[in-house]
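Why run this: before we spend reagent on co-expression, it is cheaper to look at a predicted model of the complex and decide which construct boundaries make sense. The entries below are exactly what would go into the expression plan.
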Amino acid sequence: MLAQAVTGTPGHINTMAEAVKTLRSRFQLQDMKPGDIYLTNDPWIASGHLNDFLLMMPVFYKDCVVGFTSCTSHLVDLGGLGMGPEGTDIYDEGLLIPPCKLMDEGMLNSLLMEIIKANSREPVANEGDIYALIACCEAGAQRLAGMMDEFGIDHLDELADYIIDTSYRGTIEAIAELPNGTWHNVLKVDGYEQEIDLHAALTIAEDHVALDFSGTSGLSNKGINVPLNYATAYSVFALRCIIGPDIPNNAGSLAPFRVIGPKNCILNAQPPAPVAMRHTLGQMTPDLVYGCLSQVLPDQVPAEGASCMYDLPLRHTPEAVSRGGTQFALELVFSGGTGARPGLDGLSATAFPSGVWGSQVETTEAVAPVLITRRELKPDSGGPGRTRGGLGQHIEMRSAIDEDFMLFLSVERVLNPASGRFGGKAGAPGRIRIGQDGPDLPGKGEVRVMAGETLVFETPGGGGFGAPQERSQDDIRRDLDEGLISRQTARDIYGFEP
Amino acid sequence: MSTTDTRLQVMWNRLLAVVEEQGQALIRAAFSPSCANAAIFPPASLICKAGCSPRP
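The model came back. C-alpha cells follow.
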C-alpha cells in the first residue's frame, strides 16, 4: 500500500492493504484488462466479516498495470442471520463471495449482482453501494493516470520506493528510540457465554515490534470471534498512534509491526467460525496492547476507553413479513468515551480506535421506523482522574409505529468497565435496559423491543489518568458548570469544596 | 534534499490527494445511510503499487 484516504477505519484500511496482496497473487497481471474490477467479502481475506465488500481495480497506464486502487465498505445486509452474534458458523452469517471478477473490461457481472441482491434484505442499498464502490475505484484509477501524465512518469516504481523506504526508515528510527524488551498484559472482557481473557506479549526490538496473543481464550460459539487480519489491523493502528504517528500509513510504516496468535484463539479465528461481530473484541485490542506499551511509555499512553463501538443492528420482527408489517434492516452506531490522555481529558462520545462518526438522529428516523426520544452525555460516566475519561451517552429509543422491532446486541464493557491508569478511576460501564426501571440486559444477545416500550441504552465512559485529587480546581469547576460531573462526585471523589 | 527528492515528495502529496478524492467519490455516490453519510462505517480506499511490498 502506498497511500490511503483518511475516511476509512483501521479495520478496513490495514486489512485491505493485505487483501490486495492476496488478490494480486490469485490473479495474473497478464490476464488483467482495463476496466476489470475484482471483488470479495471473504472475512479471512478482506475485512473480518461478510458485510465488508472489497473491490480492487488494476490501474492501466500506457497498456501496463502500474498499480491498483482498492476500496472497502460495509454493506448493510448480506442475508443469513444478519448482523448479530447469533450465528454458529460463517454459513449462518450470510453470503460469502470468494475472490472473483465483478467487472470484466467495464461490463458488470450481472449474475453476481443478482445473487448479491437476491440474498439481501436490503437489495437496493447493496446495489447502490456496490456501484459507489465501483465509482470509487474508477475515480482513483483515472486520477492516478492523470497524475502520471502530469508528472511525466510511466510507472510508480521510483515513487513507491521513495514512499516506502522513507516511511520504513522513519518508523524504524521511532522504534529505535524505545527501550528493548518484552512486556505483558491481560485484558478481561465480557465475551458472550463467559468472560474472556485477552493476552498480549509486546516485544520491542531494535528494528521491529512483535505482538503475540498466546494465552488468549479460545473461540466462542457465537459470532464474536476475530480473524487475525482484523485483530492485527487494530493492534498495529494503536501502536502506530504512539510510535511514529506522524508517518503516513503505508507498506513501509506498517512493515516493522508483526502480529501472531495461536490458531483458534479468539483473536485468530479460523473458518468456519462465526465472525459477524468481530469488531466487538477486535476493537478492544488497542486497550490490550496499551496495557503493555504503558509500561514502556507511561507518560504517552492513554487510559482504557469504551473502545468497542456501541453497535445497534435493528430489524423488523420475523412475523412482520407475513403480516405485511414494515420491513427494514438498519445498523446504528453510538460511541462511548475515550480514555483520559496523560495531558488531556478523554473525548466524550467519540469512537477510538474505530474513528466512526456515529449515527445521526434525523438520518436514522428518516430511513427506519424508530424514534430517538433522548440523546445526551451521561454525567459522571467519565472515569475520574487528574485528567478525566471521556463521557458515555444516554440514549432512549422506541418504535415510531405500532410494531415491535428486534435488536441484536454485541457490545462490551458492561461487566468490565474501562480501567484508569496510575490512580485514575474506571469509567462507567455500559448499560442496556427496556424502560427506565427495567432490569439490566446482558451486552450480547437478541432483544425484542415491544411497540410502546422504550429502549434505554448507555454507552461506557473512558477511564481516568492519575489520581482525581490532583485534578485542577478550574477543571473540576468547569466540569460542574457544564454538568459533566455531579456535586456529589466533585465533593466525594475529587475532594472539591466550592 | 535533492531536486529529485523534492519532486518525489510533491508526487507523494499528490498521491494522497488522489486517494482522498477517491474516498470522497465513494461517500458521494453511496446509497445506504451507513456509507452515504459516512455516519457509521466510513468507506475506506487506498492505492497500491503493482508489486506492493516493502523493501526494508
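Chain A touches chain B through 81 residues (CB under 8 Å). The radius of gyration of chain A is 23 Å. Bring this page to Monday's planning discussion.
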